[in-house]
Design brief:
heterodimer, A: 0% strand, disordered N terminus, B: alpha/beta, Rossmann fold, 2 domains, 6-stranded mixed sheet, 8 helices
Chain lengths: 283, 252
């Protein structure tokens, strides 16, 4: 941007133009790498986040586990009857799906708040901004680590056959976290500027929970609707839920997920490069 | 080698209203061509020019005071130096580890214990966990907070929080230190101790920039000062002359 800039010019365009300069792309990349190398910092932030939420309770973070267990049991028994499903089959399916959904939803919902909640720190301390995104990934992973026991207990109880297929959970978790990374980067920046974004995303995620096969099975849908295949969350959930249930994940699911990962990363990289330098002004 | 160079730095702040903070409004606005709701959702977001064409070069051994009345751009300049605000145009080049010491209790986690906050702040300063543990006893001792360090810092008084933040922040020697306002650090006894530590601390720092309204503080720490007015540098030079200019500006 040149210095003949006049206040009152279309600020939006001026910002975007400046943000898309080559120099900004380099800085964004540096921010993301430098942020990663501060892992001690963002892991500590994440642990303190989780601990703090449950500090004044006896159970501590195991509230996460307990509330997940209650949710799964209540929904499982109710919807198992509504759908006329055998509990032996349905409860593990629901528990696995719910645990995975919880991870995805908290990545996106908390991702929106990544920079907003870090306002004080961002304005006082000069750390790479990406640490606040990594912090979200870390705290969602901690929550997953508490939730997964609910699934394991259910699986054990109903004798779900778990073998080497379970190893597919690892790449699935990794790619879900990578998707959480770009989503938090993208929506985090957007939310810093537009404060109604977290609300919009929150209601959207609620809707998506019902139209994504988590409490219902894809087979229950007559004629395998096309929009089910077009729902990225269906594939995201499926790549991790299938191996949890001892089934091989579908190739189509994985291909679709890889596609949205690449697309999302490209989008977020461009967006972060363009607007990263504005975040401190926005919050 | 620590150094700071600012060339033709411009910084402007958009002033957002509740309406311009809404994506929904923004989308409606673009759908209606900005005609119907033009009064409430203005296309033009008002902009404040916080820094205008600022040029500055600091080298090792420099201690620069920033003076000017509220809103003159001192804090913004410090944040640009810290790399928190990136300018709209112009160039900022800093070499060396920059540590901002602004409102030092901000960015602390009120629900976490004193010890946890020491670790957190240390990590923000770029220390490793191991290095912080090595300094923990010294920091804890300096704060004189004793058993309180095991309690969440929301139970601390403002002065106690300040002690904690001060003790951690001064446990690392940065290359470039940015100080905002007088750091009041609790009661008189602690103040003397803090002053001694601050002196020992500041002696070893290559570059210091201090923003303050206290003429005595600026005079005692900084041989040179920079006077700001409406986001511009009005004067750079010996602190006494800068203060004289400042008084003249304010019509004293």
């Amino acid at each position: 941007m040149s210095s003949d800039y006049q206040p009152g010019d279309s600020f939006f365009l001026v910002q975007l133009q400046h943000g898309l300069e080559r120099e900004q792309l380099k800085r964004a990349w540096h921010d993301i790498r430098a942020g990663w190398s501060r892992h001690e910092l963002w892991v500590t932030l994440a642990i303190q986040d989780v601990r703090q939420r449950y500090r004044r309770s006896k159970l501590g973070p195991f509230w996460i586990t307990l509330s997940m267990a209650i949710m799964v049991l209540a929904l499982g028994v109710l919807y198992g009857q509504i759908f006329g499903q055998e509990l032996k089959d349905y409860l593990p399916f629901l528990a696995a799906g719910f645990v995975v959904w919880n991870l995805i939803a908290s990545l996106i919902n908390e991702g929106c708040q990544a920079f907003i909640l870090a306002e004080g720190m961002i304005r006082q301390l000069n750390a790479p901004l990406s640490i606040y995104v990594y912090r979200i990934l870390a705290s969602a992973s901690i929550a997953l680590f508490h939730n997964i026991w609910v699934y394991l207990a259910v699986a054990f109880w109903f004798g779900v056959k778990l073998d080497w297929v379970l190893l597919w959970v690892v790449p699935a978790l990794l790619i879900i976290l990578i998707n959480g990374f770009w989503a938090a980067l993208f929506f985090g920046v957007l939310s810093a500027r537009f404060r109604d974004v977290p609300l919009i995303i929150g209601s959207l995620m609620q809707l998506l929970f019902f139209i994504t096969p988590v409490i219902w099975k894809p087979e229950m849908l007559p004629g395998r609707a096309l929009w089910l295949q077009l729902n990225p969350f269906h594939h995201l959930v499926e790549i991790m839920r299938a191996p949890l249930l001892g089934q091989l994940p579908g190739l189509a699911n994985w291909l679709f997920v890889i596609l949205i990962t690449l697309g999302g990363l490209a989008l977020a990289a461009l967006f972060y490069s363009a607007y990263r330098w504005r975040i401190a002004y926005w919050i | 080698m620590a150094s700071v160079v600012l060339e033709n730095v411009w910084v402007s702040f958009p002033i957002y209203s509740a309406a311009t903070r809404s994506l929904k409004n923004r989308l409606i606005q673009s759908a209606t061509g900005g005609q119907i709701r033009a009064d409430t959702v203005s296309q033009r977001i008002p902009v404040v020019q916080a820094l205008q064409d600022v040029n500055l070069a600091l080298k090792e051994g420099d201690r620069l005071g920033l003076i000017g009345h509220n809103g003159a751009g001192k804090t913004t300049l410090l944040r640009v130096l810290a790399g928190i605000y990136e300018p709209n145009s112009g160039r900022v080049a800093t070499e060396g580890r920059v540590v901002p010491l602004f409102d030092i209790t901000l960015g602390m986690n009120l629900e976490s214990t004193g010890y946890e906050n020491i670790i957190l702040r240390g990590l923000f300063l770029g220390l490793k966990r191991k290095e912080i543990r090595a300094r923990m006893d010294e920091i804890a001792e300096f704060t004189e907070l004793g058993e309180f360090l095991n309690l969440p810092i929301r139970t601390y008084s403002a002065g106690m929080q300040m002690r904690l933040a001060f003790a951690v922040s001064t446990s690392v020697i940065p290359d470039i230190l940015l100080l905002d306002e007088g750091i009041g650090v609790g009661d008189a006894a602690f103040l003397n101790k803090a002053r001694a530590r601050l002196e020992r601390f500041t002696e070893q720092i290559p570059i210091i920039v201090l923003s303050s309204h206290s003429e005595d503080l600026v005079r005692s720490m900084c041989p040179n000062s920079l006077l700001m007015e409406h986001g511009r540098i009005v004067f750079v030079g010996p602190t006494d002359e800068a203060l004289a200019h400042y008084r003249a500006l304010r019509g004293w």
